[in-house]
Amino acid sequence: MTHNEPEKSWKANNCRDTKSLAKWTTAWVVTMAIANFGPKFIWQENELLTLLAIVVNLAVGVGMILANKRHLAGLDELQQRIQLNAMAGSLGVGLIVGLSYSNLDVTGLIGFDAEISHLVIIMALTYMVGILLGNRKYQ
Amino acid sequence: MKNRLKVLRAEHDLTQAQLAERLNVSRQTINAIEKGKFDPSLPLAFKAARLFKLSIEDIFQDEE
Questions:
Q1: Do A76 and B24 make contact, defined as CB atoms within 8 angstroms?
Q2: Where are the domains of chain A?
Q3: Average pLDDT of A78-99?
Q4: Does the beta-carbon distance from A77 to B44 stay under 8 Å?
């Protein structure tokens, strides 16, 4: 049996990708908050600054997507399967629940507007439950 | 699919973490394969075979 060390530790690469994703996600959340609250609380509705903040948020979002892609590609095959199942659940629930929720709003069966943020919360919760169940399944 | 990974690991005095490091996967993956909860891909099976200097069939057996 050979005892050569792997060229670059899988763990080290995984750690680097996770940190990179965390940084991009934090930057995206911060720029999202600035784009949302900046017009009212920082630059008094200046349209140019608002547009600039939205463009920066969008650009950072693209960076976050790429960091997430690198992170997923760097996972091992079992972890990728867990992620795939969790994302499939999240996408499916998001689509089905989202459209039903929209129908409730359109038909007037609920007395408030169906906000996109509610859908994001549902998808995030479904994804987290999927990850927990996946990890428990392969423990 | 049955496998002899746990036996081979013990014969070579390796922990799950050490084997995971050598195969470039997580310890969770080694544990799941040993327990028969997860079947490895062909490249990973080849990697394990190369590491133990065995053929894939010596490590992994179809249960049918």
A1: yes
A2: 1-75, 76-139
A3: 97
A4: yes
